[in-house]
């Protein structure tokens, strides 16, 4: 095989494989470097952070920054707001997108392909273009300055519909038809057969949705009118905009805001890889 040499009857990586691995490792280090730096710096005292040049490792690691951030910044309140918005929006996104994808993948009706192409074309529309009409709708419904105003507008996403539809196209039609012949209704077919088979794709969409909602800044900034409905990114931005910025607290809160996304990725990483691979093959 090209790029491999035989050593003792075993395949050993060739020059091309070593080069690719080196490039990938270098890219991973570049991506992880800011996160590692923030995590290490969050363990430093304010005095140590102010030193120049800064030391790469904390001389006296301490969790005091995290304790102070949790007690003096109302971090728990903003964290809870972000968690509610993220979980509710993700559940709503999975529900709406999976139902739309099922209809576009397994139902034959006039204009199905045109409807799918139109929904897919909306990906090219920048979100900033539709902020004003969406805000007017949210305002008319009385959802401004509420968490529901951040949850509902992002329920349907063309990316999620595309991902799930492409995955559902690979499901055998005979299995669905057999369930219908046995007397299963459409909702039961969808809930008991289609969704369990789509777990990898649902996991991919779930992690994407969690990242989008958890890190979303602009739309919550527009909808939230006071600090009672601030999500974590908005609260951190307001906190960082003060005249005197306590960087030790900003670092601690930034690290805490990253932890949930990392945990979800570690739990769902197998499903994510399988879902992306299966969708790509389709």
UniProtKB/TrEMBL annotation:
Gene3D superfamilies: MetI-like. InterPro entries: MetI-like (IPR000515), MetI-like_sf (IPR035906). It comes from Pseudonocardia eucalypti. It comes from the Bacteria. It is a multi-pass membrane protein. The keyword DNA-binding does not apply. Keywords: Cell membrane, Membrane, Transmembrane, Transmembrane helix, Transport. This is ABC transmembrane type-1 domain-containing protein.
């Amino acid at each position: 095989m090209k790029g491999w040499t035989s050593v003792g009857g075993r395949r050993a990586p060739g020059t091309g494989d070593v080069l690719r691995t080196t490039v990938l490792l270098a890219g991973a280090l570049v991506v992880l470097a800011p996160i590692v730096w923030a995590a290490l710096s969050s363990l430093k005292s304010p005095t140590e952070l102010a030193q120049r040049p800064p030391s790469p490792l904390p001389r006296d690691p301490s969790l005091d920054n995290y304790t102070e951030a949790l007690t003096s910044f109302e971090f728990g309140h903003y964290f809870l707001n972000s968690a509610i918005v993220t979980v509710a929006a993700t559940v709503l996104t999975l529900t709406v997108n999976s139902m739309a994808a099922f209809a576009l993948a397994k139902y034959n009706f006039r204009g199905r392909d045109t409807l799918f192409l139109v929904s897919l074309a909306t990906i090219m529309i920048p979100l900033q273009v539709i902020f004003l009409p969406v805000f007017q709708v949210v305002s008319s419904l009385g959802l401004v300055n509420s968490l529901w105003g951040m949850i509902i507008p992002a329920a349907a996403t063309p990316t999620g519909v595309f991902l799930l539809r492409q995955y559902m196209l690979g499901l055998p039609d005979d299995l669905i038809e057999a369930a219908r012949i046995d007397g299963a209704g459409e909702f039961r077919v969808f809930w008991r057969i289609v969704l369990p088979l789509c777990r990898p794709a649902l996991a991919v969409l779930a992690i994407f949705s969690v990242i989008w909602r958890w890190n979303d800044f602009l739309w919550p900034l527009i909808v939230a009118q006071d600090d009672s409905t601030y999500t974590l990114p908005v609260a951190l931005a307001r906190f960082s905009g003060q005249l005197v910025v306590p960087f030790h607290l900003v670092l601690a809160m930034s690290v805490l805001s990253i932890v949930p996304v990392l945990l979800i990725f570690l739990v769902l990483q197998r499903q994510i890889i399988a879902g992306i691979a299966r969708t790509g093959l389709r």
